[in-house]
Amino acid sequence: THRPFAQINAFSMQNGFILGLWVIFAHCAMLASFEYEILSLVSVFMFLSAPIVLFLLTKQFRKTVAPEGMFTITQGFLHTFLNMVYASTWVALAIFVYFTYLDKGYVFDAYEAYLQRPEVIELLSQKEIQQQMAVSLQGMTIEETLNLTYQMNSEIRMDGRLDEIMTTLYAVFLLGAHTD
What we know:
Blueprint (H helix, E strand, L loop, with lengths): L3 H29 L5 H11 L1 H16 L7 H30 L3 H10 L2 H7 L2 H11 L4 H33 L6
């Protein structure tokens, strides 16, 4: 029997693992950028190209599932949505394992060492930078700071949803698919 959700779910698990590895390597590049600054560019590139990787995975899924047949918006959206769910699960697991068993304070020590570099101290001691920091945080209570953090996280999550929608639309319409 043909079970479309099971097929979409199976492909999403595999592709979510690939996308998750991509983002995990982006995090690794970000961590290594504390020692080798050039890797910060690699990290930014990898983070910004994650939607492109998702699009390519969805395009490959479409070629496999419906090489000449009908590929619906529902199939595309479910694939990209589940891809993001599985990828974020792998990334969360990797971050948990890293911080629980491997980090031993490295991130905070490296960030502290970065802040103590002479060029960073010079940059942060500039009057304009200090004024910007004072204005941006002026009068904020802990509750307001937490609320701002929550709002920023909500925007990041919404950006993920927009990535899913855009990837679906590209995969469906640019590749000549049909709607439900």
